[in-house]
Design a protein that fits this description.
By secondary structure, this protein is an alpha/beta fold. It has one domain (about 5-225): Rossmann fold (3-Layer(aba) Sandwich). It is built from 6 helices and 7 strands; from the N terminus they run βαβαβαβαβαβαβ. The protein has helices at about 15-25, 40-50, 70-80, 105-135, 160-180, 205-215, and strands spanning about 5-10, 30-35, 55-60, 85-90, 140-145, 185-190, 220-225. The protein has a 7-stranded parallel beta sheet, with helices on both faces. α1 (about 15-25) runs parallel beside α2 and α4 packs parallel to α5. The radius of gyration is 17 Å and the shape is globular. It starts with a strand and ends with a strand.
Length: about 230
């Protein structure tokens, strides 16, 4: 059986592991989860396996703020799979701070995690996704990024996150305009509010289903989930 691999950067016990599980249920037979915390990764892998027992799940520890650690980790991903079909970027730092009290070091950290890390990953992923599209015209090679309403409706208490999410949105839209014609599907998932299991719309399962819907659409750039 050929490998259909989903790579999740920023795996966690909410959106990340639910998206991974739903892709596994849709026929992806290999999931690679990446996050900083190895204990959390093990728990996330168990969650995915509980939903899709036959799927292969690999985990890799990665701190996206350490840009020098990204290229060797990408090589490890290549060693684990030659069939990468979807890359899902779900990393962000959420830290409420009064608007003029955000340290510049925090702004730099957030930009590394959500923008520079994504840029390095895109440089690596886009050629692979283009090759996958060329090799199999029925495939839907995709690069998806979790976003929010902050790019157009910033919150003062989340100044840093609002700034980097706006920049991140520009990057994804630019990638879409540059490479969509080469068979790569770029997508932004706008999660417009706090995620909680009890929230009727903004719960991890519904967000995962909307992400699957974006993938199955094959062309749409954006999908929004509101409270």
């Amino acid at each position: 059986m050929s490998s259909r691999t989903l790579v999740v950067f920023g795996s966690g016990p909410g959106i990340g592991n639910h998206v991974a599980a739903d892709f596994a249920l849709k026929g992806f037979n290999h999931i690679i989860l990446l996050a900083r915390n190895s204990k959390s990764l093990a728990s996330n892998a168990e969650f995915v396996k509980s939903k899709a027992p036959d799927v292969k799940v690999d985990t890799l520890s990665l701190d996206l703020s350490d840009l020098s650690a990204i290229p060797p980790t990408l090589k490890k991903i290549e060693e684990l799979s030659s069939g990468i079909e979807v890359v899902f970027f779900n990393a962000a730092v959420i830290k409420p701070t009064p608007v003029l009290e955000v340290p510049t070091e925090e702004l730099e950290l957030d930009y590394r995690v959500t923008n520079l890390a994504l840029y390095i990953i895109a440089q690596w992923a886009v050629p692979k996704l283009q090759a996958a599209a060329k090799a199999n015209p029925s495939a839907k090679p995709s690069l998806f990024v979790t976003s929010s309403h902050l790019p157009w409706d910033p919150l003062p208490a989340l100044l840093s996150l609002s700034m980097v999410k706006a920049s991140q949105r520009v990057m994804v839209m630019s990638l879409h305009r540059a490479y969509a014609d080469s068979g790569v599907h770029f997508g932004l998932i706008y999660v417009q509010g706090a995620v909680a299991p009890e929230n009727p719309n903004l719960n991890p399962k519904n967000i995962a289903q909307k992400t699957i819907g974006l993938y199955e659409d094959g062309k749409a750039l954006e999908v929004s989930i509101k409270e």
